[in-house]
Design goal:
Layout: H1 3-8, H2 50-54, H3 60-65, H4 72-75, H5 88-99, H6 105-114, H7 116-127, E1 156-157, E2 162-164, E3 173-180, H8 183-187, E4 192-193, E5 198-201, E6 209-216, E7 239-242, H9 243-252, E8 264-274, H10 279-295, H11 298-313, H12 327-350, E9 354-359, E10 363-367, E11 383-391
Parallel strand pairs: 1-7
Antiparallel strand pairs: 2-9, 3-10, 3-11, 4-8, 5-8, 6-7, 6-8, 9-10
Length: 407
């Protein structure tokens, strides 16, 4: 009760309590909130639960992105959610088989081979999403990597092997020609320069960089049983080699092998490098190849082979692939395949096999029990038999004592 009314009230009389006053809206103050209208029960959706009545729920992508407003949005890092994409190789093969009536595998294979280059570039772009390093598709290229004429070659020596053992031990020998599976596919794992090549001078090799180098190769004194790591080169003097060739020579000149002297480096064109630039691209193709082998899928096998082989052969100066102009990568990947083959020849020699021939990217001829050295199969880490032939003449049997002419 109000104190004034209580003082004026006669003795023994009580006043009822004063009614509560409603607040009056004054200008400049916040108005009262309007009451939330209720939805009749017959208009509510049957699937509206407590979560739907409480407000819109955040989706999975919004929850992962950490969406906030105000000052907190500037401090919190946004993390995008990457959705898993289907297998592009299997999808392309299935589409080609469906497009050709009756599932004719020959027509589907021919169609896939025609689109192998653009499909490989699309797969490369898909594999590089979210990658740490960006692919520089058209950097400045030094003159040593440019063709000297329209149909000529540049100045890079890839160290392609073409070697035959000069002599074999006396007698007749059975030679097995081994085929190295997926040579270019395995060679995609090599140190590739990321950006524009920079010129340096001096006998210094930085393992964090990769490119091409002008070197004077060391003398090779083991040609009787092993090929020269720089291939068959008759001209003496300096030559431009790639990163895999230089690293192989440095490895062979080290204390573990001590097969030659270290090469002398005169000048280089290099850039910061990584061995994993094409790793995801390589793994996707390798997994597709492994699944095709397990399923007996020859269409996918031919398609995958065309993708990685044409990808390597057209990344230089080619009219068939204008999306990528990296002749340095092309030379490095090819040289890596040749270096991998040379290392297999060394492994065979160290295991007691006689190396007879080393040819191209994938051909190794040996004498001896090669199965204890190399696993047999069609996988990338395996070898398969390409041919078996015999060389040499069997020793003549000595004449019997009774057949000798006594006259």
């Amino acid at each position: 009760m109000c104190p004034v009314r209580a003082a004026c009230a006669p003795p023994g009389r009580r006043f009822p309590p004063a009614p509560r006053c409603r607040p009056v809206h004054r200008p400049g103050r916040h108005p009262r909130r309007a009451p939330v209208p209720t939805v009749p029960a017959e208009l509510r959706r049957a699937d509206d639960g407590p979560a739907s009545r409480a407000g819109p729920s955040r989706t999975r992508s919004q929850a992962g992105a950490g969406v906030r407003t105000g000052a907190g949005a500037r401090r919190r890092r946004t993390v995008p959610v990457v959705e898993a994409s289907p297998d592009p190789v299997a999808a392309a093969v299935a589409e080609a088989l469906t497009r050709h009536e009756g599932g004719c595998w020959r027509a589907a294979t021919a169609a896939l081979l025609k689109r192998a280059i653009p499909d490989a570039m699309a797969l490369l772009d898909d594999c590089r999403k979210g990658g740490r390093y960006a692919v520089v598709a058209h950097p400045w290229i030094p003159d040593v990597l440019r063709k000297q004429s329209a149909r000529g070659a540049d100045q890079i020596w890839e160290a392609r092997p073409k070697w035959t053992r000069p002599e074999l031990p006396e007698g007749r020998h059975e030679v097995t020609a081994l085929d190295i599976n997926g040579a270019y596919l395995s060679a995609l794992k090599t140190h590739l320069p990321l950006g524009q090549l920079e010129h340096t001078v001096g006998d210094v090799h930085d393992r964090r960089r990769a490119g091409v180098h002008l070197i004077t190769p060391p003398e090779w004194e083991h040609g009787a049983y092993l090929p020269n790591p720089i291939g068959n080169r008759d001209e003496p003097g300096p030559l431009w080699v790639t990163e895999p060739t230089l690293r192989l020579l440095l490895r062979l000149s080290g204390p573990k092998y001590a097969l030659c002297e270290p090469p002398e480096i005169h000048e280089s064109f290099t850039s910061g490098a990584t061995e994993n630039l094409l790793e995801k691209f390589r793994v996707v193709l390798k997994d597709a190849r492994d699944r095709a082998l397990a399923d007996g899928d020859e269409v996918t096998l031919e398609y995958v082979k065309a993708m990685y082989s044409k990808f390597v052969s057209t990344m230089g100066e080619s009219n068939y692939n204008r999306e990528l102009y990296r002749p340095d990568w092309m030379h490095l990947i090819r040289s890596q395949a040749f270096a991998n083959l040379w290392v297999k020849a060394l492994k065979a020699h160290d295991a007691g096999l006689a190396v007879v021939r080393v040819m191209g990217t994938d051909e190794l001829h040996v004498v001896g029990d090669w199965r204890r050295v190399f696993p047999e199969g069609r996988g990338v880490a395996e070898v398969k038999v390409k041919d078996v032939y015999c060389v040499g003449a069997a020793p003549e049997a000595p004449a019997a004592a009774g057949d000798a002419d006594e006259n």
